[in-house]
Specification:
Layout lengths: L2 H29 L5 H5 E12 L1 H4 L5 E11 L6 E20 L9 E20 L6 E21 L5 E27 L3 E12 L2 E4 L5 E4 L3 E4 L2 E4 L2 E11 L1
Length: about 240
């Protein structure tokens, strides 16, 4: 092939490839979508929590420990007002014992019977906060609920997988909620990460619940349950991180 014919072929190839390249670039740009308005206004908080019983509840049970997740929806452009929902689970008591799986096969197969006491606090309501600065205080309030339940389960002696469980007691109550805390920025670039330290107060609830020792084993595979009933006021302290755009 002569040089001139080769040059003409190269020019034709470049001319044909240019629209395709432009088309490919356009398609790549099309995939780079901006976050939706809902995504920009949303953030989540994940925290370790401690429940501190108050009033009559404090006379019957001790502190509880667990996890909490919160969703925040910013209602204005600046972030002064948000809607906050919280859901957590804490364990305030646990007891266990090792027993034979069955009296008919003797003591060769041992299992662990564990009983755990839980509180599930939940709430929803508005939150006011300072949206800028190195320390950003906030206050919140609303309506809430607390679920109390006690669960017994059986684990094998050499593994951690339960193969049978029973809910021994459950109850719930509604309440009002008020709280506050601070956000402290840790990372503020494309994704924002803030330390979330705060406390919520649950008031005016009333429920029935168990505590360690409430279930007594009797002969002939029978049990006796002694429940407690009181107001369910408590403070929920949380330490975690808030993540959002």
């Amino acid at each position: 092939m002569s040089v001139s014919r080769f040059a003409r072929a190269a020019l034709i190839g470049i001319a044909a490839a240019s629209p395709l390249a432009a088309q490919d670039t356009t398609c790549i740009d099309c995939t780079r979508r901006e976050p939706s308005e809902l995504a920009r206004r949303s953030s989540g908080s994940f925290a370790f929590v401690q429940t501190r019983p108050l009033g009559g509840l404090a006379e019957n049970i001790g502190f509880g420990y667990g996890l909490n997740a919160a969703y925040l929806l910013r209602l204005d452009q600046k972030g002064f007002l948000s809607l906050r929902t919280d859901l957590g689970i804490t364990q305030y008591g646990q007891e266990s014992m090792r027993v034979p799986l069955s009296s008919t096969i003797g003591g060769r197969i041992q299992v662990k019977v564990s009983t755990d006491n839980y509180i599930v606090p939940m709430s929803i309501g508005p939150q006011l906060q300072v949206p800028t600065g190195p320390i950003r205080p906030y206050i919140n309030g609303g309506i809430g609920a607390q679920a109390f339940f006690t669960d017994s389960h059986v684990d094998g002696s050499d593994d951690d997988h339960d193969f049978a469980h029973t809910t021994n007691q459950h109850d719930w109550t509604s309440s009002w909620v008020a709280g506050g805390g601070v956000f402290v920025p840790l990372y503020m670039k494309k994704m924002s990460v803030l330390l979330d330290l705060g406390v919520q107060y649950f008031g005016s609830g009333h429920a029935r619940y168990l505590r360690p020792g409430s279930i007594e084993d009797l002969p002939n595979a029978q049990i006796r349950i002694t429940s407690f009933e009181s107001d369910t006021r408590l403070a929920l302290v949380h330490l975690g991180v808030r993540i959002g755009l």
